[in-house]
């Protein structure tokens, strides 16, 4: 009797998923001698269009897997066996030291910098720039407080985070591995956590701005890696005091968990 | 009977295993939270804003703003913020101090009033809280901040935002992520240590990160852009002083404000101490004859007089200080106003001002003949200045005929 029960159990456990395999429409893989025309990675199930008879109909899922993020306004959860319950943050500013040489009143000087952000179990993050414009002694180059085109001959310092054509520098943010998993944005007004948002002026092609304390990028949810490129422009006027100007940009990430 | 006993043994054995498994599972679950904190809740919207993410920021100069929403309505008398390099997990017995980090010494400065974000409600109140650094790292550097208030506050769960600043933090010296464990307590004696946190109310972990700097260096050279022209920079600066046949008249001197009998110069410099413009050359001459330099004279008094002079006025940009000989003193308008109408028979002078504000023209031949010439104008700070230099010349009946010319140099010198 026990033996029969075992047999029935084995048949049920073994056959049910197999039965479901035969019901799945899948790509057919063939070679000259073999073909595999039903493929499923998973526990299986049975759709109602197939699991039916003249009198009954069923729709079955066997141990269906549910993973990933679900969230409400105040809480979120990650389903799945292999999840981590620690807040995570990866903020990498590519250390760079760029010399623009001697500036000219007749042409713009440009430079780029990069950083990337990835965070987990958060409500999102913002990135702030927290440094004054280039300074030499007591003089600080004029930061563009509103989005402005590059104008050689006029003292200007600004930046943006998009791909520009005049001057031809920069790149749009790159979502890694894809925009399905990564959500960092530089678009003006793009939301971050706690009602924060990206400041205007850093996402319009060929327009540059610089104001210390501005939020230049944000995500309002946990995000895979977003790679950002900052484009800087510097113009001087004939009256810009002589000297060596240095800009040490401090970028601050503020994730909220 | 034998089969019954066998079945019973099987069920007993399996039941025992199930009971053990159940107990193990329950025990495991209990390990998630210390028994005394089974009702502790995870604080929400928790963050720590750094005023500077530079790992090389000046020691004790960085401000951290701790901010979170309380999850339990309960009297809070102490808040612990423990900074660890390994993880943010409350309950983990290991908390490795971030290298170089310091909460601000043994008595960190904290601000609970308006913090740095004026939009936040000062839940903790303006005063009454004191900070203490514990878990000595090295020297006078501490890893853990505990703020206490014997009176305490009672936040409302889910709505009260608790925020305060630590104003003299030293960042970790390494670039990268580090963490903070935040816990609230109902007593000023917290009994906190990693893995043995005592009876806390709410808790939560936060990740922070220092980051490298993006450094851009550029040089601005000493600059002086100086241009002398009639119509535009880069064009000739030749002036023909006379009537339509370029002939001077005895009935009135020849002059006109603007470019008709004058030139412009533009000066742009970043010289910290400004710049001067000198005029160098001699008066009009023809062979061995010359028209005397004006000295400094009123234009009204020049009919039938031999003289050559000039006057400068500002056209745009920074107004320079013009030397006395050339500033048109007496001309209240500051435009070297005087115009000659000449029909090739009789010249007449107009717009010369009224006494005592007659326009003056000057030419200090002694100084203009020196090595560096005579100072025409100066600006005392970096700037851009566009100015007009207007010439005037008159003759009397005895002036020898001829073509009178002069080549004048305007020399700009910046002081940096």
Tally the helices of chain A.
1
Cα Rg of chain B: 44 Å
Largest sheet of chain A: 5 strands, antiparallel
Structural class of chain A: mainly beta
Amount of beta strand of chain B? 35-45%
- Domain count of chain B: 2
Low-pLDDT runs of 5+ residues of chain B are 24-36
Tally of distinct domains of chain A:
2
Structural class of chain B: mainly beta
Q: Please report the number of helical segments of chain B.
A: 2
Radius of gyration of chain A: 28 Å
In quaternary terms, these chains amount to: heterodimer
Shape of chain A: elongated
Order of helices and strands of chain B: HEEEEEEEEEEEEEEEEEEEEEEHEEE
Instruction: Classify the helix fraction of chain A into a percent range.
Output: under 10%
Average pLDDT level of chain A: 85
What string gives the helices and strands of chain A in order? HEEEEEEEEEEEEEEEEEEEE
Strand segment count of chain B: 25
Structural commentary:
The complex is a heterodimer of chains A (257) and B (416). Chain A has 257 residues and is mainly beta. Chain A folds into 2 domains: 14-61, no CATH class; 88-256. In chain A, 8% of the residues lie in helices and 37% in strands. Chain A has one helix spanning 2-21, and strands at 29-30, 35-36, 45-46, 60-61, 68-71, 76-79, 88-93, 96-102, 109-120, 124-129, 135-136, 139-140, 148-149, 156-160, 174-176, 207-208, 215-219, 223-235, 243-249, 251-256. In chain A, a hairpin with a 2-residue loop joins β11 and β12. Chain A starts with a helix and ends with a strand. The model of chain A is unreliable at 10-27 (pLDDT under 50). Chain B has 2 domains: 37-210, Sandwich (Immunoglobulin-like), CATH 2.60.40; 224-414, no CATH class. In chain B, β15 (285-286) and β16 (289-290) form a beta hairpin. Chain B is rod-shaped, with a radius of gyration of 44 Å. Chain B starts with a helix and ends with a strand. At the A-B interface, β7, β8, β9, β18 and β19 of A face β2, β10 and β11 of B. β19 of chain A pairs antiparallel with β11 of chain B, so a sheet runs across the interface.
């Amino acid at each position: 009797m026990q033996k029969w029960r075992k047999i029935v159990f084995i048949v049920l456990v073994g056959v049910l998923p197999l039965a479901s395999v035969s019901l799945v429409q899948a790509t057919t893989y063939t070679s000259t001698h073999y073909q595999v025309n039903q493929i499923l990675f998973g526990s299986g199930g049975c759709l109602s269009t197939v699991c039916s008879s003249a009198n009954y109909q069923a729709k079955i899922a066997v141990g269906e897997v549910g993973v990933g993020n679900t969230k409400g306004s105040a809480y979120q959860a990650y389903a799945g066996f292999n999840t981590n319950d620690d807040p995570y943050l990866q903020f990498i500013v590519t250390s760079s030291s760029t010399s623009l040489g001697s500036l000219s009143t007749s042409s713009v000087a440009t430079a780029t910098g990069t950083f990337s952000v990835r965070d987990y179990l958060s409500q999102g993050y913002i990135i702030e720039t927290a440094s004054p414009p280039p300074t030499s002694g007591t003089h600080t180059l004029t930061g563009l407080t509103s989005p402005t085109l590059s104008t050689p001959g006029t003292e200007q310092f600004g930046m943006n985070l998009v791909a520009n054509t005049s001057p031809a520098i920069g790149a749009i943010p790159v979502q890694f591995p894809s925009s399905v998993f990564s959500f960092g944005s530089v678009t003006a007004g793009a939301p971050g956590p706690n009602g924060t948002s990206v400041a205007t002026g850093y996402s319009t092609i060929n327009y540059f701005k610089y104001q210390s304390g501005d939020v230049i990028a944000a995500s309002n949810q946990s995000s895979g890696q977003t790679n950002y490129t900052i484009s800087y422009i510097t113009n001087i006027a004939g009256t810009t005091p002589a000297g060596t100007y240095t800009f040490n940009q401090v970028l601050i990430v503020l994730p909220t968990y | 009977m034998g089969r019954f006993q066998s079945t019973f043994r099987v069920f007993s054995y399996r039941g025992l295993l199930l009971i053990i498994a159940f107990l193990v599972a329950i025990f495991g679950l209990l390990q998630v939270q210390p028994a005394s904190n089974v009702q502790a809740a995870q604080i929400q919207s928790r963050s720590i804003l750094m005023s500077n993410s530079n790992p090389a920021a000046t020691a004790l100069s960085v401000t951290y703003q701790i901010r979170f929403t309380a999850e339990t309505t309960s009297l809070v008398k102490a808040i612990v913020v423990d900074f660890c390099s390994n993880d943010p997990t409350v309950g983990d017995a290991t908390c490795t101090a971030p290298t170089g980090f310091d909460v601000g010494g043994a008595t960190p400065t904290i601000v609970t009033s308006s913090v740095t974000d004026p939009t936040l409600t000062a839940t903790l109140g303006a005063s009454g809280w004191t900070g203490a650094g514990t878990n000595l790292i090295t020297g006078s550097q501490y890893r853990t901040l505990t703020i206490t208030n014997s009176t305490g506050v009672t936040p409302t769960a889910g709505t009260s935002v608790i925020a305060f600043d630590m104003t003299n933090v030293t960042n970790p010296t390494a670039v990268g992520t580090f963490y903070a464990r935040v816990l609230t307590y109902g007593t000023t004696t917290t009994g906190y240590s990693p893995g043995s946190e005592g009876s806390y109310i709410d808790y939560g972990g936060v990740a922070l990160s220092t980051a490298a700097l993006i450094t851009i260096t550029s040089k601005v050279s000493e600059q002086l852009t100086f241009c002398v022209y009639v119509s535009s920079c880069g064009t000739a600066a030749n002036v023909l002083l006379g009537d339509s046949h370029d002939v001077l008249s005895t009935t009135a001197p020849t002059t006109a404000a603007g470019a008709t009998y004058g030139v412009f110069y533009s000066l742009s410099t970043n010289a910290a101490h400004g710049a001067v413009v000198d005029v160098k050359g001699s008066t009009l001459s023809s062979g061995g004859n010359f028209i005397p330099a004006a000295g400094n004279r009123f234009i009204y008094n020049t009919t039938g007089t031999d003289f050559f002079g000039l006057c400068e006025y500002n056209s745009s940009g920074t107004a320079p200080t013009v030397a006395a000989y050339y500033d048109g003193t007496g001309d209240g308008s500051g435009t070297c106003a005087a115009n000659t109408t000449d029909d090739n028979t009789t010249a007449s002078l107009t717009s010369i001002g009224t006494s005592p504000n007659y326009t003056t023209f000057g030419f200090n031949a002694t100084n203009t003949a020196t090595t560096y010439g005579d100072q025409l104008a100066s600006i005392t700070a970096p700037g851009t200045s566009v100015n007009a230099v207007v010439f005037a010349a008159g003759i009397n009946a005895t002036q020898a005929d001829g073509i009178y010319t002069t080549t004048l140099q305007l020399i700009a010198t910046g002081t940096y």
